[in-house]
Specification:
β2 and β3 form a beta hairpin. The protein has a single domain, classed as Glutaredoxin, CATH 3.40.30. 34% of the residues lie in helices and 23% in strands. The protein is of the alpha+beta class and 180 residues long.
């Protein structure tokens, strides 16, 4: 019985808190310039963070095999539809092994923001992504922006684990940010 309970914790806990990986995350300090990247999009074009200068960019790392990631993408889609603005973009960076699963997921959900593919894992490494989903906000100047953790009052530059993006408090935060 104890072995069954331990097995359930090993299987269920990562689903409840997000999909984790191997290493301990190392934090990027707020105000530090975010590493630039250029990655392919599903439509065949390429996107770079540096081409988004002048905009707030929510950079979101995810994978199709991470159930909390897919749920969060749907919430991000709602936020993006509500807030799509000249000064706001979402770049969702998939950490899958191939385009096939990413393309299938996009066909099923029709997300309106850019889906990028980090096939070589270079962007994952430069952002020190060790858990999924992971989200950072980059300022119009290209530096990390501190965000308030949903569970407390501490500021962080990395939101690890699934977040609810399509709620009034989040929408108001981004409206103030964009209009400020």
């Amino acid at each position: 019985m104890r072995a069954a309970v331990r097995m359930a914790v090993v299987i269920i806990l990562p689903v409840l808190i997000g999909c984790s990986s191997l290493d301990n995350p190392q934090k990027q300090p707020p105000g530090k310039l975010a590493p630039d990247f250029t990655l392919p999009c599903l439509d065949g074009s390429k996107r770079s963070l540096s081409s988004m200068k002048g905009k707030y960019v929510l950079v979101h790392f995810w994978a199709t095999w991470c159930a909390p990631c897919i749920h969060e993408l749907k919430s991000l889609h709602n936020l993006y539809r509500y807030l799509h603005h000249d000064r706001f973009e979402i770049l969702a960076i998939a950490l899958d092994d191939s385009w096939e699963a990413i393309s299938k997921m996009q066909r099923e959900n029709n997300f309106s923001f850019s889906i990028l593919f980090d096939e070589a894992g270079v962007t994952r490494q430069s952002y020190q992504v060790t858990e999924l989903p992971l989200t950072v906000l980059v300022s119009p100047e290209g530096s990390f922006v501190s965000l308030l953790q949903p569970q407390g009052s501490a500021l962080t530059e990395r939101l690890v684990g699934p977040q609810l993006w399509d709620n009034e408090a989040t929408a108001n935060f981004f409206k103030q940010l964009l209009n400020g």
